[in-house]
Every structure is written in C-alpha cells, then in structure tokens.
Amino acid sequence: MRPYASYSFWLETCGDDLTPRPALEGPIEADVAILGAGYTGLWTAYYLLKRRPGLKVVILEKEVAGFGASGRNGGWCSGKLHLGIDQMIDRYGVDTARRVQETLFDTVDEIGRVCAAEGIDAHYVKSGALFLSRFPYQVPEMREYAALFGRIGFAGRVKVLGADELERRVRVRGALGAYWSPDYASLHPGRLVRGLARAVERLGGRLCERTPVTDFVPGRPAHLRTPSGDVRAGAVVLAGEAYLCRLPRLRRTLLPIYSLIVLTEPLSESQWEEIGWRQRECLCSFRLTVDYLTRTADGRILFGGRGAPYHYASGIADSHDHDVPTHALLRAMTRDWFPGLENVHFTHAWGGPIAVPRDWTPSIAWDPQAGIATARGYTGAGVAGSNLAGRTLADLITGDDSPLTRLPFVNHRSPSWEPEPLRWLAVRYIQKAYARLDERGERTGRPPDGTTLAERLAGH
Q1: CB under 8 Å to 165, separation ≥6 — which residues?
Q2: Sequence-separated (6 or more) residues with CB below 8 Å from residue 449
C-alpha cells in the first residue's frame, strides 16, 4: 500500500484511517457512476443523495479519497474563481458577473453549513482574505481590484486597508496596504475531504478505492471502464480534475500545473506576538506567479506558490510533487515576508497538479444524450468551486431547473491546448517570463501592462 499520509500534512493529520476501501471486484450497474473521490466527485454524490435518497451512486477512485488536490491544497475556501471579476464583466456583463459573485460568496457559507450539519471537523473558520501590496507598483492594482467590486454593487463587502490598519491585523515586511474581503474561509482540506467521503457513505453512496478508470464510453447507459470490469450507469460523472488528462480522449483538455507548498513548525507565542495574524485570514500578494499563505489551526504557516516547471506531455508523477529549487524559494519567501522567522524550521514540503483549461474558465457540463457529465478546470480555486460544481451537476443530472444551471460556466467548452512540443515551449516560456515580470516590478516599480508576449500568450 502507498504511504498516503506522506503526500501532505493534510493527509497526515486528517484523523482518518487511510487504508483503502475495497476495490471494485467486477462489472456492476448504477444510477450514477463517478470518476474521482476528490471534492468534485464527493460533493456531486453528496447533493445527489440528499436530493434523491435511494439513488445508487458509485464512486471509483484510483488511490484513496482525497489523494489529489483535495488533500494537498493551500486550505483556502475562496469566494472567487481564478477567472477575475473584471474578466466576467467583460465576457458576460455586469448582471451575470454579479450573480456569479453572489453565488460564490454563498458557496463559502454553504461549505461551513455542511461541515456543521454533517459533523465534519474541518477547522473551518470564515476568516476573510487579505490581498497584500508589498511593492509600490502593486498599490494601483489593489485599489482597482477593490473598486471593481464597488462598481457592481459589492462596495460594502470589500475594504482597502492602509499600512497601519493592515499592521494591526498582520505584520508583513514591506506591506503597503491590502484589499480585504470577508468572504473567504480557512480550513483543513484533508479533514474536509475525508469527512465528506464518510458523509456520502452514510447517505448510501459506495466508494471503490484502488480502482483506476481507464476510459469512458458515452451511451445510454454510459460506461466507466476499469481493469475489474465496467460500471454502467444512466449518468457518468468525470470528476478527476487534473488527472483527467491521463485519459487519451481528454489529454489536451486540461493542463496540469504543479503548485508546491512548504510548512513551518508550530510557532511560539512570542513569534505570533511579533506577526499578529490572530484571525487566520488567507493571505496572498499581487504577484503574477501566485503566492498563498494560510495559518493552520495548530499555529503553523503554510506558504504555497506556482513556480514549479510544467512537465512535457502534461506529465503527472509522484516525483513532480517535489522540486528542490521551488521549495527552497518558498522557504526563502516565508522568511522574507516574516523576517523574525529566519531560523524557523520547516517540517513539510509537498505539491500536486492543478487543472488549467486553455481559456482559464471552469466547465460544468451535462450531456443527457451521451450520459456524460463533468466539472473541471478550477485553476487552483477548487475548494469552493467544486462545491458549486457538485450542486450544479446534481441539478443538471436530476433535471431540477435552478439558478445554478443558468450560470455561464454550464456546458461551457474550452478550446484544446496546443499539441507538444508547442505546449511545453509556450508554457515554460510563460512561467519564466512571469517570474521575470515579478522581479522587474519589485526592482524597478514598473507594473505588468499586458503587452508582453507572455501576457498575450496567456490571454486569460
């Protein structure tokens, strides 16, 4: 058996037995068959079973529930998608952007409600988020970001903090101010995903772990193919997120980009006195290359980022979970943010792939003629995004018309990624160029302006 607890601090401390559940032993039939026992698959099963008790729902998982991003992420329950509010306004108009944003705000609360109702001790706390400006060139972007929410009717839900007010919340070297939103939560991802798996089983769902899916076949019924036999169902849900690109027919639908994380030892009370950060807000800055920080319930600092290189042909492997230069950079950044931690010990380092669609837009889709549903492409915002997707898929599959089924992501189709080697060349170039743009801004004060080749290629 794989040492599943070694894949992340979250799986190590989830408080659950990670011994795999029994694998599928032969062909079976179900009402709904789901590929993947991460957040998307489990939320979909949960809401289907809550709305239609007695449905035969079977979930097939290659490893164990929470093995992928659901058990390895940064602990943010985010009231936004990677697709920004400005991009939603440009694409869908102000009214739709407002409706999507209101739904995302409610989704953060919905996860807290389910944790309370199902007795899932996921260390959920609605802490809010602080988007920090650490360099002068980031201040105008911070103010514009807050102003966008004001222009569509959310002025009361956001606030720009000056340096002094920010310092009363958290003390970060060089911080000039922050945009604050209350509509974020911090949680323990491993406890959430494992607790959700148990909730699904209590409702009558069946989880088959150590059961790889090798292909899917549209039809009525549709099929999930496994080495142990097919699962035939009226609805098949493809909920493997980044791992879906391992299926031949989906190889170019998603790009697996590795996000890596380091974690400190628990800090002393005197260290926390120096830092502040008593409310456990989610923290990040306005870097293009992305950083994200979490204060854990046991008093550690998690620092994550996207510096790991893309692997040729969308490669996913355990060896990619660790990248020595990137993990070293994240440790250095932690000490840069908090100079008093120059001698702090780091206890954990891990990583995993997130799924990036070609247009950076998530998709929630159901084709009743083919019997195939899917939700994917959260681009790192999947803790809350997957809950929204699970509720939406439950409505689509059961035929319940709802406001969720009219969201702009429903039945959205992203273009395919370019074939190799173009994909590798372009993505690696963009990764390096974004890092240079961040370094230039910090050195010269010149902000990214959207005109560089890398920014045009990313085009999202």
Answers
A1: none
A2: none
Euclidean distance between CA atoms 314 and 213, whole angstroms: 18
- In Å, what is the CA distance from 17 to each residue of 5, 95, 187, 253, 453? 9, 46, 20, 34, 49
Give dist(CA 404, CA 106) in Å, integer.
12
The pLDDT value recorded for residue 400 is 94
CA distance 31 to 371: 11
Q: pTM above the 0.70 mark?
A: yes
Task: Give pLDDT, residue 300.
Answer: 98
Q: What is the pLDDT of residues 200-223, one digit of tens each?
A: 999 999 999 999 999 999 999 999
Question: What pLDDT digit, counting tens, does each position of 327-367 carry?
Answer: 999 999 999 999 999 999 999 999 999 999 999 999 999 99
Which pLDDT score, from 0 to 100, does residue 457 have?
Answer: 62
**191 CB neighbour count, 10 Å cutoff:** 24
Phi-psi region of 84 (alpha: psi -120 to 50; beta: other; left: phi over 0): beta
Give the strand pairing for 159-162 and 231-238: unpaired
Which two tokens mark 330?
């994240």
Quickly tell me which residue has 């493809």 as its tokens.
238
Distances 145 to 78, 162, 442, 446, 451 between C-alpha atoms, Å: 16, 15, 19, 18, 19
Which pLDDT belongs to residue 454? 61
Residue 181, SS3 per DSSP: strand
For 59, 228, 353, the CA distances from 231, given in Å and listed in that order, are: 10, 9, 27
Compute the distance between CA of residue 422 and CA of residue 445 in angstroms, rounded to an integer. Answer: 32
Which residue numbers in the chain have pLDDT < 50? Answer: 460
- The domain made up of 1-128+182-254+356-417 has a fold known as FAD/NAD(P)-binding domain (3.50.50)
List the CATH code of the domain at 130-181+255-355: 3.30.9.10
3-class DSSP string for 304-372: EECCCCCCHHHCCCHHHHCCHHHHHHHHHHHHHHCHHHCCCCEEEEEEEEEEECCCCCCEEEEECCCCE
Distances from the Cα of 8 to the Cαs of 3, 14, 21, 113, 219, in angstroms?
11, 10, 20, 26, 38
